[in-house]
Amino acid sequence: MEVKELKSKGLSRELEVTIPANDIDRRVDARLLEVGKTVKMPGFRAGKVPMTMLKQRYGKAVMGEVLEAAVNETSTKALEERNLRPAAQPKIEVKEFDDGKDLIYTLSLEILPEFKIADFKGVKLEKPVAKPDEKSLKESLERIAANNGGTQEVTTKRGAKNGDTLVIDFHGRTADDNKEHPGMHSHAHNLELGSNQFIPGFEDQLVGAKSGEKVEVKVKFPENYGAKELAGREAIFDVDVQQIREPAESKVDDELAKSLGLEDLAALKKAVEEQLQKELDQHSRMNLKKSLLDHLDETHKFEVPPTMLEMEFENIIQQVEHERQRTGEEAALSDAEKEEFREISERRVRLGLILSEIGRQNNITVADADLQRAVITEAQRYPGQEKQVFDFYSKNRQALESLRAPLFEEKVVDYILELAEVSEKKMTAEELIAALEEEADAEAKPKKKAAKSTKKEEGAEAQKADAPKPEAKKKAPAKKKAS
What angle do CA 178, 181, 187 make, to 5 degrees? Predict the structure, then answer.
């Protein structure tokens, strides 16, 4: 094998690799010998077919297989010999080849940048910490009571309002052809007004309705509605309001705790307080991690591979446009917005490379046991659908590997934090949450400071796969499909 460097500019490299004809012939003969061990031809026993006959019968078929293997092997070797680490899949183009002649191909790639990792010892970071206060505990308990208090029938003649649950029968039809489609009718359906269970405009037209009334509801299905035969079409629903129910008075007492499987109110308070503390600890971790990522970004400046940058940029743009379409906003982005999102993309890629290099230099890895725990955690998020989630990851290696990137990132972050000087800043739960909400509001707008967002950098590795979600996640309640 002979290798020539044709291009070396910035992070771009182009190599020309030549595989001698005799090497190709040797590989073909070796492969034909393997094939010949099992091939049977008239007049010859298995393993005794002459090479000339094997070449006539199987030469062309074997040649393609051999060339592919030769290119894969030699391209890998060429990169290793020059200590080149590709940032993305190299592009290979065969320049010359014919029977009995050398194989010549070019190998074009972008390499990962070389940079020095800053010393983390002595880095000072501040971690905000908070404990649940009485106000948060009280509000949480009241919310639990309200969610578990059920409803009671409204006995007065008042009209329905947001927060009420209507028991309704409805029959729908598309306006242009007066036809009913699957999912457009239901009986004794419980619909909470203001819950946005149904398509936009449906619930609004039931506000003010009284028990026993019939209401004609006119709506238009969204353009991106799941059922394609209904997307973008106008529809009419005949709705019979059977009953109006309002939230029943709820009490925070021992009975509430027992209905939730706990011994008494004291046990419920303890469980709620532990959950609140867990949430505050997560917020503290998020804030500390953001400070660390800011520090890494500020102390490491280097060129990022253009291909990686473009892939990340396109991914962000697609996510933003999809979200805008979902909410009915104008999907098109302005040039200024695109420029700001490109800055976010560059930061993401740079942070991913930094964290990856720190992990590589310090032999930080994610074990299979870590992945298994991650799958279990993911499955626990979908009660009743755990088996579907397990099956999805067991059959989809790419999706399983997508869990590795955020796990790896957290391990690298933990490693850095052990070396840094981390001090705690005590604050109230209200102050901590307010600070995070302020950051979240900033992240919702395409401003330059959003380039330092925290949530957008969860799983910052630019190399990780954008895996599909489990089917268990995609299942929507039938009532949402109905209208």
Answer: 105
Our CA dihedral for 286, 291, 293, 298, rounded to 10 degrees, sits at 170
State which CATH number among 2.60.120.10, 3.40.50.2000, 3.10.50.40, 3.40.50.1400 fits the domain covering 150-247.
Answer: 3.10.50.40
Q: Virtual CA dihedral for 349, 350, 353, 357, nearest 10 degrees?
A: -170
* Radius of gyration, CA atoms only, the chain: 31
C-alpha to C-alpha distance for 153 and 210, rounded to whole angstroms? 12
Residue 40 C-beta-side C-alpha neighbours within 13 Å? 1
- CB-CB contact of 206 with 239 (8 Å): yes
Residue 53 exposed, middle or buried by CB count within 10 Å (0-12, 13-18, 19+): middle
Tell me the per-residue pLDDT of 27-56, one tens digit each, with 9 for 90 and over.
888 888 777 777 777 767 666 677 777 777
Q: Using one digit for the tens of pLDDT, what is the confidence trace for 165-214?
A: 999 999 999 999 999 998 899 999 999 999 988 999 999 999 999 999 99
On whether the CB atoms of residues 86 and 48 are closer than 8 A, the answer is no
Burial class from Cβ neighbours inside 10 Å (0-12, 13-18, 19+) for residue 405 reads buried
260 in Cβ contact with 268 (< 8 Å): yes
Task: Please write the tens of the pLDDT for every residue from 436-467.
Answer: 777 666 655 544 333 333 344 444 443 333 32
In this structure, the strands spanning 165-174 and 234-247 are antiparallel
**Residue in 220, 223, 235, 150 with CA at minimum distance from that of residue 185:** 235
Residues 6+ apart with CB under 8 A from 166: 160, 190, 191, 192, 193, 206, 209, 241, 242, 243, 244, 245
CATH class of the structural domain 124-133+263-475:
mainly alpha
Cα separation, 181 vs 233, in Å, equals 12
Tokens of 191: 């619909």
Q: Model-level pTM?
A: 0.68
Superfamily of structural domain 2-110: Trigger factor ribosome-binding domain (3.30.70.1050)
**Cβ–Cβ < 8 Å for 277, 131:** yes
Identity of the residue numbered 347? R
Report the C-alpha gap between 140 and 148 in whole angstroms: 12
